[in-house]
Amino acid sequence: MVKVAPSVLSANFAELKKDLDSIQKYGADWIHYDVMDGHFVPNISFGYSILADVKKVSDLYLDVHLMISDPKKYVDEFIKAGADLITFHIEAMESEEKTRELIEYIHQHNKHVGISIKPATPVSTIEKYLNDLDLVLVMSVEPGFGGQSFQDMAIAKIKELKDKRQDAHYLIEVDGGINDQTGKLCKDAGADVLVAGSYVFNADNRQAAIDSLK
Ligand code: DX5
Ligand code: ZN
């Protein structure tokens, strides 16, 4: 069964605990935590100190999506704050050597590692890392903002990642513009984890929204 990871980017931060409790009660599997630095993407969200607070009040698996220019510089802070999975963008990395070092570093700290690709980045860019990854995050919108429309090209990438998986163990996660309809397309293509921000948090009935994604 597909996992649902509501993105707290669309939560009400003044009532964060209430929002986290509600999605946990309604069957969310993970919390997707979008970190934006105003440099890698044209928006600023939240950092590791709020993550540490989230960790204190929720038992859900913490899926941290780093949309930042220098993931290595801050990775220790996110590890300390309680991330379970740390996903960084391949577009933020300057070399294969640094990418491999970062994957290894996160694994040495007993955390899961993911790499994300923006809509214009082909799967071939990350092919050489696939055997070492716990997750690949396919962006179905340009990273930076919630509430955008799903871009169909994500479907072909999900299928490609599924075909390539063979002996590797990575999960395929998709992020951006997910609702009941686009979520179904992704599931049928082979996605294992659906991130949904506005569709879950803006729903009148969050239970129904999460159920419809599963
Ligand atoms: C976008 C973020 C997403 C965002 C998704 O840069 O990575 O996780 O919160 O929001 P929706 O589901 O509203 O498109
Ligand atoms: Zn995200």
Q: What is the number of E strands? A: 8
CATH architecture: Alpha-Beta Barrel
Please tally the helical runs, counting DSSP H or I stretches of 4 or more residues. 8
Bound molecules: D-xylitol-5-phosphate, zinc ion
| Spans where pLDDT lies below 50 across 5 or more residues | none
The CATH homologous superfamily is called Aldolase class I
CATH class placement: Alpha Beta
Instruction: Label the structural class.
Output: alpha/beta
* Morphology: globular
Number of domains: 1
* Helicity level: 25-40%
CATH topology: TIM Barrel
Portion in beta strands:
15-25%
What is the element string, with H for helices and E for strands? EHEHEHEHEEHEHEHH
What distance separates the N and C termini? 7 Å
Largest beta sheet: what is the strand line-up? 1-8-7-6-5-4-3-2
Major sheet: size, sense and barrel closure?
A: 8 strands, parallel
Taking all Cα atoms into account, the compactness measure Rg is 16 Å
* Average residue-wise pLDDT: 98
Layout of secondary structure:
Elements lengths: L2 E4 L9 H10 L4 E7 L11 H10 L3 E7 L3 H11 L3 E5 L6 H13 L3 E6 L17 E5 L13 H13 L5 E5 L4 H10 L3 E4 L1 H4 L4 H8 L1
Parallel strand pairs: 1-8, 2-3, 3-4, 4-5, 5-6, 6-7, 7-8
Zinc ion binds next to strand 2.
